[in-house]
Specification:
86 residues, alpha+beta, 2 helices
């Protein structure tokens, strides 16, 4: 699964705009977010669709599908909830 390229990130731009407003996240490069100096969120494209890798707990990334608007909304809600924690 390759990292999301410019065309995939263009499809995700409305989601990226919303993620950029969340406290505590820093976008190091387009679609790559850090939290407390550590890689936190990035995106992949695959024949099965678009996915986000998010480090919610521990050292491992959780893979979350973000192909549909509903999936993107669910990720955003989870990120917003997580971002409000210390």
């Amino acid at each position: 699964m390759k990292h999301a390229g410019p065309a995939a990130l263009d499809r995700l731009e409305p989601l990226l705009v919303q993620i950029r407003t969340l406290p505590g996240l820093v976008e190091k490069s387009r679609g790559v977010f850090y939290r407390k100096g550590k890689a936190f969120l990035h995106f992949h494209e695959d024949p099965a669709g678009l996915f986000a890798d998010v480090r919610f707990v521990g050292a491992e990334f959780d893979r979350v599908r973000v192909e549909t608007e509903a999936e993107r909304g669910a990720l955003l809600m989870r990120l917003a909830s997580f971002a409000t924690r210390s």
